[in-house]
Amino acid sequence: MRILVAEDDEALRSVLERGLKRAGYVVDSAADGSEALNYLRSYEYEVAILDWRMPQLSGSRSSARCGARVQKCLS
What is the pLDDT of residues 39-71, one digit of tens each? Predict the structure, then answer.
């Protein structure tokens, strides 16, 4: 399962990424909404975990653009 983690807090993003990888998931991580949107355009995700308030593009706007490329958006 491929998961996108978008979080501007580096420490929190790192904890989420490490934990998910240890659980056996393939994880991509983004530091801001624009980077998250680039990942969303490049890959298909079963789950996207999006910070509600991120620089450049908020999690709410990113989730609105998830569309069919993500099975479940969490923001």
Answer: 888 888 888 888 776 655 555 555 556 554 555
Q: Determine the residue type at 51.
A: D
* Cα atoms found within 13 Å of the Cα of residue 2, Cβ hemisphere only: 11
CA 35 to chain centre: 9
Residue with tokens 């490490």: 18
Spatial separation of the C-alpha atoms in residues 8 and 11, rounded to whole Å: 9
Using the structure block, give the residue that is written with the tokens 């580096």.
Answer: 10
Please answer whether residues 35 and 28 qualify as being in contact, where contact means their C-beta atoms are separated by less than 8 angstroms. no
Which residue in 19, 25, 73 sits closest to 50, CA to CA? 73
| pLDDT score at 68 | 45
Identity of residue 58: S
**pLDDT (0 to 100) of residue 41:** 82
